[in-house]
Amino acid sequence: MNFEIRSVLARRILDCRGYPTVQVDVWVGDTLGRADVPAGRSTGSNEAVELRDGGPRYRGADIQRVIATIEETIAPHVIGLDVTDQLGLDRFLCELDGTPNKAALGANATVGVSLAAARCAAKLTGLPLHRYLRADSHVLPVPLVNLINGGRLTSNDLDFQEFICMPVGASSFSEALRMASECHMALREIVIARYGKLAANTGDEGGFATPIVDPREALAILHEGVEAAGYAADMVYGLDCAATQLWDPDKHTYRVNGRDYTTEQLIDLYSELVRDFNVQSIEDPLAEEDWDGWAALTAELGSRGVQIIGDDLFVTNPQRLQRGIEAGAANALLWKVNQIGTLSEAIAVAEMAFRAGYGVCVSERSGETEDPIIADLVVALNAGQIKTGSPVRGERTAKYNRLFQIEEWLGADAVYAGRQFKGRATGRGNVADSGSYASRDLTA
Ligand code: PGA
Ligand code: ZN
Question: E strands, 293-400, where?
Answer without folding.
Answer: 307-310, 332-335, 359-363, 385-387
